[in-house]
Design a protein that fits this description.
67% helix
Amino acid sequence: MDVLKKISIILFFTISTLILCRVFFITHYLDFDSFYFATKAFYINGNPYGSVEGALVGFLYPPASFIFFSPFVLLPLKIAGLLWAFVSIILLVISIILLFVIAKKKVYTYEFFMILGLVFIMFPVKFSLGMGQVGLLNVFLVVFFIYTLTLHKDKVSGVILSSALLLKLTPMLFPFELLVLRRWKILGSLIITSVLILISLTIFRKEQMLIFLTQSLPGTFNSWPLAYYNQAVSGMVGRWLGTGEVGQLVKVSLSLSMVIITFIVLWKNRASKEIALRGFMPLLPLSVIVAPLAWQHYFVLVIPALISLYFSYQKAKEKAISYLPLAISYMLITSNLKNPDLFPLVIQSHVLWGAMILWWLSLREVKNL
């Protein structure tokens, strides 16, 4: 690599990092405020899913998620929010390091800093950090799960995947892939860990568990926001066809078709040695695409699929033109429209189209194993 390229990469990484660091100058992190005050309400046996003093938005996450927020409520809100943002960035960097390790590539190279810079400027990343969301912690848990999977640490893998699902239900399709692969030890560890945590919460916080199961969780699945920032299939279909019977039929049919196609391909290639790693990559964009709703910050979950696909193309020594669909996918996911109403409806779902391209590319990789 010549000197000019090296300088360009370092300059790009520096600028990307400075742009990302603007998150530390935000007055307050709206969603983190909700996590913070809901966790406090949880520990005094209050209702974290109701109107919580200090929180401007409602809390929707499973009761087990309070485990992750607990250390932060010991600090003043402002300091806790800054620390959460810092920890989230560190977890993102560690996730990318683990992806390099999984791909058996050298870390801390110019390529590493180029990829890190590209991730830093993604709008879903900045949105997640700016809101104080849990997405980057979820990404770390998912990547850590895949890393332990490659090391054949089945029991540890199950515990980590349980943690990811108890924090946020987004990687909800992963257990089904474990069924396809017949990884019974991982599934057993996943089930035992989840059951033990849920039983403990039910014993000590029965009322909060009931509120989550009967009110919060059904409310999330029944919600159908049509705002631009909902980039799931539900958002696209709702904006195009409305939320009536036709829209409902199209939404369910399209989502179900994508899930069925995915698992048919995974099933047919279940004997491949590389399926344990690559088989989870189509599930990352798919999990967000078919979610009841997916705000743009949810799409940080596709970062491992983007990077892994890039590494796969490198390993196969693909021609430059082969990277074009991946680059288009990245740009569509990365972008944000400040005034979406000025654009046609088809363009308003640009993140969804990028995720669908990534899903198709990842599935094609599995098919070619």
